[in-house]
Amino acid sequence: MQINRRTFIIGSAAVGGGLALGLRLPFGPEIARAQDGSPEIGVWVAIAPDDSVNIRVVRSEMGQGTITGLAQLVAEELECDWSKVRIEYPTPGESVKRKRAWGDFATGGSRGIRESHEYVRQGGAAARVMLVQAAANQWKVPASECTVSNSVITHAPSKRRTSYGKVAEAAARLPVPKDVPLKDPKTWKIAGKPLKRLDTRDKVNGRMVYGIDLKMPGMLNAAIKACPVFGGTVKSYDAAQVSGMPGVRKVVQVGDDAVAVVADKWWQAKTALDKLPVVWDEGENAKVSSATIAEVLKAGLDAEQAFVGNKNGGDVKNALSGAAKRVEAVYAYPFQNHACMEPMNITARYTPDKCEAWGPTQNAEGAFAAVLAASGLPADKVDVYKTMLGGGFGRRGAYPNDYVTQAVLIAKQMPGTPIKLLWSREEDMLHGRYHPVMQCKLVGGLDASGNLSALHMRLSGQSILAAVRPQVVQEQKGRDPLSFQGVFESGEHSFTYDIPNLLIDHAMRNTHVPPGFWRGVNINQNAVFIECFMDELAEAAGQDPLEFRRKLLGKSPRALGVLNAVAEKIGWGKPAPKGVYRGLAHLKAFNSYVAGAAEISVSDGNKVKVHRIVGATDPGYAVNPAQIDRQVAGSFVYGLSALFFQECTVKDGRIEQTNFNDYNSMRIAQMPKVETVLMPTGGPIWGGIGEPTICVAAPAVLNAFYRATGKRIRSVPLKNAGIELV
Amino acid sequence: MIRLSINGKTQNVDVDPNTPLLWVIREYVGLTGTKYGCGIAQCGACTVHIDGAAVRSCSFPVSAAAGKKITTIEGLAQNGKLHKVQQAWLQHDVPQCGYCQSGMIMAVAALLKEKPKPTDADIDAAITNICRCGTFQQVREAIHLAANGANAKV
Question: Which residue in B103, B99, B122, B101 sits closest to B112, CA to CA?
Fold first, then answer.
């Protein structure tokens, strides 16, 4: 099995021939074909004479297993031979020409599978019907007398058999049926099974092509440096100082805030860039520091004006003042960088007639829009070709004036020459789209029986959408609904607790540091805030944290289900091994219900060993349980790295951390044993997998840390409190 | 001109002797399986073998590699047969995005050469590569699989 690499391996012939990539289009009576010439049977499937099946996937693969899962769903309905499945990436340019036949390309928000499962299954089912009809037509028998299995069509009464590859050309000429009934997931044979990924072989032999690996004839390499202070601009630079250095071809300004060196080799470009004298106009933002940002956020905790994200019952402030017991706490969550292993990069080539980009993106349509805008060319002269992504985590979504735009602006200054722009790790650290900074004040009121009668959760901090999708914030009259992920009034991130008097609001305090969607997005901080505070409330009520939560989850049986599952598996209520302490947390996010329970020990008061973490997830449906296991285990690595190590601090308007030496990430020695409980409960709604579990790592461990030490840490990362992960 | 032996092939490269070996492998020799992650020997994505030992090639000047036997991920398989670490990785479906895995596999192959049956503590001490997808649980299981063959408990 392989990914059709012609999508992104650029041969010299292809370049010479005007980059004849992408799918051939139907002209007149001719049918559409895949890149290998095989006929297209509906837009999702193309089948070659040798029965190999090209399944089209437009969502991006960044390690989360989406291409395998989507292919399983198509193959399930298609009834094809799984061993002959290959993946093909249609391009956004082709999509535009074909009225967005493949739907949304965006791969974020854990949506890859859950928001396309229905139409890709329909695509597989329709192709199956067309193939059977083609065979039936050939045999002059009713299609209803034919059966199909593993790419073979059989007409039992006449004992005839044929294969998909043999009837594909005829099938491609049939009309695409609509609304073919889909299988009951209970009968799945390919989907729902723990199949191996389709993209592993090339990842163990060094052959997988990531954006950084692209080679094109005549290609040059660019290294870039943007003003380290966000919002600052280039004042001047002295190209003459480096233009004679080995390999250097050109020194160019990129937009108003960056300078790039273009050279034969990237290392030459970087070496010259390091020596290039640049004077920046850093502007007003150079006065900003982490301390000044924290002050602004702190003021927001008690501000009069705030956007309401969730409200229940009467006046919360009255209810709180009338409570038998009042508990109050302030929490904080920092800026964090995604730190994808593959630094940002893209390759672009511009001529006045065509502008194309090749590389890693989570949203090929977003990258397409960026190329369109930066090139100034019309949509029929622009395209984007995806490679494998060396991590994404939200960083490779579509952000204004980001790496795709930069590459096109460089390529425009050297028409006809493909330019591979690669950021250094340092540039990647200094110009992230950071996890938003947030503080939170929580006030809870308990009645005389220790029941939670009122809760006010006040968020104060940055809005991602205000920076990235301002139109959404405008539609919401200034509110960023995403700020309330996991604690919202309704929808895929709704709050699970039933509290008689509730107010959750957000004092929006934006900074000059650009925010982005960081795997899990706003659930990371919201889960720390609410789930640690639940433990604080339980303690004030003199109750067990699990029992305290259970009483509030009467209206959310699925949340209760995952919480009970981790409690049972971790052994909650039974004695832990000597010196071992437990904590738990849960949340609903991306329409999945997730819970985590951790077992930790603490030595010397500050050295934390996380022995075990149990993660339970109810995503409604599980398309590939083996990959879900891996996503859950990986989520704990991402979440624990963030909890213990990761903060981007601001000094003189710029980020201080520059590489993995001061922005650490977990290693294998620190990896806990992860046990996954996968408990899909079906229903009409499919949940996401890639992100939800991350957010329960931190509160589960923080709650365990409190039980181990009596110290309640309310600020991330723990390194700031002198706490280590061992 | 520096004479390099990479994956059993000798070749001359015309390059500044201070250039990190990583960039010579990627940009002059054209083998891109070895990855750039940090440039300061922190993450291990650039791990190759020099005379059999794991080395972080981003911080190793090409001049120091002259005359030594360099093996990259592309040269780990022998006679068309994947190395046992690569086989274990395939069997256990280890990679997620896969970007760090070339370096991870090279580090593990060097460990197994030195310690054919490593304990968990040996693994913890020797394998310090960063994986942001978080494949560590699968990595550990696959190391035991590679070391112990079919009897490995995974």
Answer: B122
The pLDDT assigned to A27 comes to 46
d(CA A650, CA A652): 7
What's the pLDDT score for residue A22? 42
The shortest C-alpha distance from B38 to chain A (Å) reads 5
C-beta separation of A33 from A46 below 8 A: yes
Q: Which top CATH class is B84-149?
A: mainly alpha
ipTM of this complex prediction, to 2 decimal places? 0.97
Neighboring chain B residues of A194 at a CB cutoff of 8 Å:
none
Q: Which residues of B touch A392 (CB under 8 A)?
A: 97
- Options 1.10.3730.10, 3.40.50.2300, 3.30.70.2470, 3.10.20.30; which CATH number does B2-75 get? 3.10.20.30
- The low-confidence residues of chain A, meaning pLDDT below 50, are 1-28
CB contact under 8 A, A669 and B124: yes
Give alpha helix (H) positions in A301-363: 316-321
Inform me whether the C-beta atom of residue A693 falls under 8 Å from chain B C-beta atoms. no
Compare all CA atoms of chain B with the CA of A519 and give the residue at the minimum distance.
Answer: B133
Structure-derived torsion over alpha carbons of residues A363, A368, A374, A377, reported in degrees to the nearest 10 = -170
Mutation site, B137, B141, B143, B144, interface A, largest A CB count within 10 A: B137
Q: Is residue A135 within 8 Å of A162, Cβ to Cβ? A: yes
User: Which token pair is B99?
Assistant: 């970007």
Identify from B38, B56, B86 which residue to disrupt to test chain A contact, counting A C-beta atoms within 10 A and taking the largest count: B38
| pTM of the complete model | 0.95
Q: Which residues of A touch B136 (CB under 8 A)?
A: 633, 637, 666-668, 671
Model confidence over A659-692: pLDDT tens digits?
999 999 999 999 999 999 999 999 999 999 999 9
**Helical segments of A437-590, H only:** 464-468, 470-475, 523-540, 545-552, 557-570
Same topology for domains B2-75 and B84-149, yes or no?
no
Q: What residues 59-88 of chain A have any CB closer than 8 A to a CB of chain B?
A: 61-65
Alpha-carbon gap, residue A430 to A467, rounded angstroms: 18
Q: Decide: A197 and A65 in contact? Cβ < 8 Å.
A: yes
Contact A638 B132 (CB under 8 A): yes
Residue A136's region, left for phi above 0, alpha for psi from -120 to 50, else beta, is alpha
Give yes or no for a contact between A340 and A396, defined as CB atoms under 8 angstroms apart.
Answer: yes
Q: How many CA atoms lie within 13 A of A45 on its CB side?
A: 40
Residues of A in contact with B98 (CB under 8 A): 63, 199-200, 202-204, 208, 388, 390
Closest CA of chain A from B4, distance in Å? 18
Token pair of A401, please? 């004036």
- Tell me whether residues B137 and A633 touch, CB distance under 8 A: yes
Domains of chain A: 5-204 (3.30.365.10), 211-283+344-422 (3.30.365.10), 290-336+434-725 (3.30.365.10)
A717: preceding bond cis by omega (within 30 degrees): yes
A292's CB contacts (< 8 A; 6+ apart) are none
Cβ pair A394, A521 in contact under 8 A: yes
Domain boundary assignment for chain B = 2-75, 84-149
Q: Does B154 touch chain A (CB under 8 A)?
A: no
Q: Strands A452-461, A501-508: parallel, antiparallel or unpaired by DSSP?
A: parallel
Structure token digits, residue A233 = 């601009």
Q: What is the mean pLDDT of residues B127-152?
A: 92
Q: With contacts defined as CB-CB under 8 Å, which chain A residues touch B133?
A: 63, 341, 391, 634, 637
Q: B48 in contact with A at a CB cutoff of 8 Å?
A: no
